Amino acid sequence: MTRITLTPDEQARMKAALPLWQAVQARFEARFGDVEAARLRGALGAVLETGFEPWAE
Fold first, then answer.
1. What is the pLDDT of residues 24-52, one digit of tens each?
2. Which of 10, 17, 33, 54 could pair with 6 as two cysteines, CB 3.0-4.6 Å apart?
3. How many CA atoms lie within 13 A of 35 on its CB side?
4. H/E/C letters for each residue in 10-57?
């Protein structure tokens, strides 16, 4: 498992970005549908669980 540490500046940027990300996620779910969004996240999670790492090739 890889650990990362954020600098205080990076932490501030994350704190500022979080509400924006949450708003975009809410808009996506409103347009795409809660159930479909959950299915998409599940499918993407399943892809990650396969261990496929195209960026490592």
1. 999 999 999 999 999 999 999 998 888 87
2. 10
3. 0
4. HHHHHHHHHHHHHHHHHHHHHHHCHHHHHHHHHHHHHHHHCCCCHHHC
CA angle centred on 42, ends 36 and 43, rounded to 5°: 90
Length of the chain: 57
| Integer Cα distance of 30 and 9 in angstroms | 32
Listed residue (16, 15, 19, 17) closest to 27, CA to CA: 19
The amino acid present at 30, given as its one-letter code, is: A
**Whether the Cβ atoms of residue 37 and residue 28 lie closer than 8 Å to each other:** yes
Maximum Cα–Cα distance across the chain: 37
